Amino acid sequence: MAPRPRKRSKGLPPYLYAERDSRTGRTYYVYHGPDGKRYGLGTDKKDAVRQASDANLRRASTPDELWQRIRRTESPTVADYAQRYQDLCNRRGQKASSRKSRQTRLNRIVSNLGAQYVSDLTVRQVADLIEAISAEGKTRLAQTVRNELSLMLDDAMADGLVEQNVARMTRKERHTVQRERLSLDGFWAAYEAAKRRPPWVRRLMELAIVTAQPREVLVAARFSDLDSEWWWVRRGKTGARMKIPLGLRLDAVGWSLRDVVGACRDRVLSPHLLHHTRRTGKSELGDPVAINTASRRFTDCVRDAGVGTEHPPTLHEIRSLSLRLHEGEGRDPQALAGHRSEQTTALYLDSRGSEWVEVRL
Questions:
Q1: What are the helix and strand counts (H, E) for the chain?
Q2: Which CATH class is domain 16-60?
Q3: Which among 72, 171, 239, 246 has most CB atoms closer than 10 A?
Q4: Phi-psi domain of 30 (left: phi exceeds 0; alpha: psi -120 through 50; beta: other)
Q5: 360 C-beta neighbours (distance < 10 Å), count
Q6: Cα–Cα distance measured from residue 247 to residue 254, given in angstroms and rounded to the nearest whole number
Q7: What class, spelled out in words, does domain 184-349 have in CATH?
Q8: What is the pLDDT of residues 228-268, one digit of tens each?
Q9: How far, in Å, CA of 323 to CA of 339, rounded?
Q10: DSSP letter string over 94-141?
């Protein structure tokens, strides 16, 4: 037989009722929720009163209550805090290219969550943003936006504005690189197509394939960085310092670094290894080649040569090809790449199924 509800006893908070079990005679407490359900709170009166009082306080509060209004005046919006976060990052001495990339990610965050108060951000709101970006086919951007928001909320936690990082609670997006690897045959085809481009395009490809250095190092190379035996390289992105012997030779292409440096010396007087040999647009004779210009011209050569299909290899893929070739000739690819971890080098050495594996007798 079900117990009969009793009238609320004096001293009990609203919606909390004391009921008696007809079989045992013991009194227990039940809370009637706003959803019409009954919630048992056991036989401990003191504990039942505490839980019911807390539920009533939360039940009565609305977004317009005084405490909510006070709390929100103390918490900045996502848009306001994004500006503070950008200022903090700038004071940490990061590069202009990093600041530009970060601003792109922050713009995406602010455009979707800018009006939200930082303290009110939920896991669901962040997850919706990440899923929306992924639905556009931009899984890599979804990854970087999630990471940027996580870093921003880490600073917000340090400022005492939030107690937990809701961005880190979201599911990590998995990104599959679609860009094709560059094969040696593809390199030669693009190199042949580069004959129809300015001379610096071929010098760029030669320097990239022999040294396996990233594009930002290639376009920044100066003759003053060279002595009779070494090329002294400073990686602006990671701060790594390397010295590469001019005698470094890649037999797969038949060039040494000394050969490539010699080819960079031409009739135009310039401090830069890769420089313009004619006036084009805003570029004067001897001006350095801009990093994006270098990437675009290589992409033009790849397309002219018909290398790749839907996602043709980019200039950065020469670095991967060079490391694979140097490893095949017995050199340490990690040292040449300037990587601190073997895992990073392994990503470059992965041919992604673009090369045939030779079974030797």
A1: 14, 7
A2: alpha beta
A3: 246
A4: beta
A5: 3
A6: 12
A7: mainly alpha
A8: 999 998 876 666 788 899 999 999 999 999 999 999 999 98
A9: 12
A10: --HHHHHHHHHHHHHHHHHHTTSBGGG--HHHHHHHHHHHHHTT-HHH
